[in-house]
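Sync notes, pocket subgroup
Present: LS, DG
LS reminded everyone that the earlier model was apo-only. Rerun requested with fe (ii) ion included. Inputs:
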Amino acid sequence: MRILILGDVIGQPGIRAVVSALKGLVRDHRADVVIVNGENADEGFGISPAIADQLFKAGADVITTGNHVWHHDDIGDLLNGNPRVLRPDNYPGGAPGSGLYIHEGRGGRVAVINLQGRDRMPAIDCPFRRARDILKRIKGQADAVVVDFHAESTEEKEAFAHYLDGDVTVVYGTHTHVQTADERILPGGTAAITDIGACGPDQSVIGFDPAISVRRVITQLPLRNEVAANAATLHGLVVTTGEPAPRAASVERIQFRSLI
Ligand SMILES: [Fe+2]
C-alpha cells in the first residue's frame, strides 16, 4: 500500500495548491490513500466544513488537525459529524470528535491516529500513553497504522517515533511547518520524520506574512498573523507498507511547487 501524506494546509494559497495539484500527485505516486493536515486551512487558524469539503473533493481521504482546530466555536459539529476529520485524541475527556479513524480503501485498512505533543504546547493528556491505549484497542483491525504527531519539540517528536517503533507504519511530525530532512526507517520498521512541512506560501514565516512576523518579534506585541499571499509548495511524505505489517518498506519526502 502506498500512503501519501501532506502537511499543514495554510490558508487560501495552501488550499489552492492542494486543489490544483493533489490529483496529479496521487497519480504520480500511485497513492492508495491520502491524509492531509488541515488545522491551518481557514486563513491560518482552524478549519471550516466548507474547507474540509474542498480538501475531500481534492482527494483527501482523512483530515488530521492540531491545536488550532479549536479556533472555530462550532468545530464540534464538524468533528462529531464527520469521523474522517480528526483532532488530537489526547485532549481531556469530553472534547468533541476523535483522533482515530480506520480508512478502508484500495490498498487495505489504514488506521489514522492524530495526537499532540505537550512540550511548549497545551498541557493535555499524555500522548505516549494514549497511543498505547489506541493501539491496544485497534489490534488486528488495520493493515497499516499512520500517526500524525502534532508537536513543537524535536526531542519529543523523535522520542515519540522511537516509542512506537515496530508498532506503527509511520510517525510523522506536523505543526512546525518547515520540512526536516531526517526521514528514515527506524530499527523496528517504523518510518519517521520530525516534521513533514506545510502546504503553504513559499515567501513566508511558517506560512504567514513576513512583515507582520518581523514586527511581532521586534516589538513583542501580540500582532495577529496573516497568511502570506503568494504561491505555495506542498510538502509531505510517501510511505509504502512492507512485511510483516505494520512495517514500512520505504519512506520518501516530497515537495511540489504550485504555480498558483
Ligand atoms: Fe499547523
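DG: The chain has a mean pLDDT of 97.
LS: The chain has one domain: 2-257.
Action: DG to write up.
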